[in-house]
Amino acid sequence: MDAIRLDLEGLAARVPDEAKIALPPDYSYCAMALVRAIIARGVKGLHIIGVPALGFQADQLIGAGCVATVETAAVTLGEFGLAPRFGAAIKSASIRMLDGTCPAIHAGLQAAEKGVPFMPLRGVIGSDLEKRRDDWIVADNPFEESDPILMVKAIQPDFAVFHAPLADRYGNVWVGVRRELMLMAHAAKSSLVTAEKIVEGNLLDDPVRAAGTIPGLYVGALAEAENGAWPLGIPGGYDADAAELARYVEMARTEEGFADYMAGNSKEAAE
């Protein structure tokens, strides 16, 4: 069966207010074009989950007023420094922050992937983080005496949102070694994916690509979007636009500058 293929606006229209969406880190495959389309729709109240960290796409969603809750191990723009709109939102208490760790985020998603209510995890007990997360529970290991273990509640996003270098007409999506995207797609109720190119063949029939391909049954809808990760890059595809990213960071230091930047991007997208 062929996949549901939409344009960017149609794909963005599938994200309702207050949806819980999983997003990959900047070094993975980020659907920046789709994020801009979601912002253009004026979606509100999103719960965004960094798998395991967030960057430029989260900062833009937060700056645009689309986000109510952030759940992640970190929000960073890497070599470009702090995320300005995230920082402003934290200082003004306009968003709710659920701090996690990289293993805890992955554990919660793995629980949802496996269809179980929680996943046991070590390494967090006794930390301030464990004390502040009332949705995590410390319990006794039933197989070993005097061995407390942390139970991380399952994290099931409504959507995994990401970009990919390649997809096929059946909705199969090749992500190569980006295993966090596999986990996101397995854990989420559905995935909304943009791809650089959509081909006619079946990627699962290719013995070289099959192991790095997410089957179409995990993909709710698909859109072709050349340069869909810009101004971020695609590992093995094209490099990030460092000048554009630096321009964003400089302009987004103020609310007015951020608005001007986003209006400029909207104009470029329309052209």
Coarse morphology: globular
| Major β-sheet strand ordering | 6-4-2-1-10-13-16
Spans where pLDDT lies below 50 across 5 or more residues? 266-271
The pLDDT mean sits at 95
> What is the total tally of β strands?
16
Question: Can you describe what's shown?
Answer:
Strand 11 (166-168) and strand 12 form a beta hairpin. It is built from 9 helices and 16 strands. Helix 3 (56-63) packs across helix 4. It has 2 domains: 8-115 and 156-270, 3-Layer(aba) Sandwich (Glutaconate Coenzyme A-transferase); 118-153, no CATH class. The chain starts with 7 loop residues before the first helix and ends with a helix. It is α/β, with parallel strands linked by helices. The protein has helices at residues 8-12, 32-41, 56-63, 84-92, 102-114, 128-132, 179-187, 242-251, 255-270, and strands at residues 20-23, 46-50, 53-54, 67-72, 74-75, 96-99, 118-121, 136-140, 148-153, 159-164, 166-168, 173-174, 190-195, 198-199, 213-214, 221-224.
